[in-house]
Amino acid sequence: MTSRLLNIFKDNSLILKWIMVLLAGFCFLWSFQLFIAGNAYYSVKNDIEGWQLSPEKASIKQVDSGLSKIGSAIDYFPDNALYYQIQGQLFEWKAIVEKRSEESVDAGSDLNTNNANLNNAATSYQKSLLLRPTWSGSWIGLASVKLLQNALDNEFYYYVKNAKQAGPQDAIVHKFIVEFGLEMFSVRSIHYVKIKEQLKQHLNLGLQNPLSRDFVLKAIQKHNASGTVCRWLRDASYPVRKRIPNCITYD
């Protein structure tokens, strides 16, 4: 009887050891995949941030490399909304860079390729929102695709509205509305009328938020709108107004 109990104990111990080995192997594999995916994400994120500051530095080769990296990350973690969002940004950049390359050699714009890239971007943003519906960045991504398609329709404003609801204080929302609004103001577009109140609000909020402040200031300078923005924000706080070039003088 004792021998039988010992054999059962040994068998159970062996099973337990194998379970521990399998668990350790699984944890190691998961950690390795997390490390690879995380590195891919931050590498691509840094590239995109660099392109946003200097768009001319983006190349098709770099964008394709980024798509390959983030594609691997998605293969490892297909339920990560952030990976799909950044994949959408890469497809947008691919559309922008390829169009720029075609125009530089007077080859004309390949609308099919451009539309394919933008459709892929929209699909990635939609996948992101299926996983996380309240992600403002993906709503802004969909609005950005519509803007690049020159389709400023009700759907575009629906995306902007959802982005504001999802992240009213998010830097990405301030940046998009400020850049779009100032561009519409500069070209005297009818769309300025639709966005002007939101533009004033997000100029104010964008200058308050340290994550969007520099972008907003550059957008104001780009559109030579310092005087106009100063008038729009005459009721804003002193710390906001003093950041606008030539808005507050001490004469």
From TrEMBL:
The chain crosses the membrane at residues 15-36. It comes from the Bacteria. Keywords: Membrane, Transmembrane, Transmembrane helix. This is Uncharacterized protein. The lineage of its organism: Bacteria, Pseudomonadati, Pseudomonadota, Gammaproteobacteria, Alteromonadales.
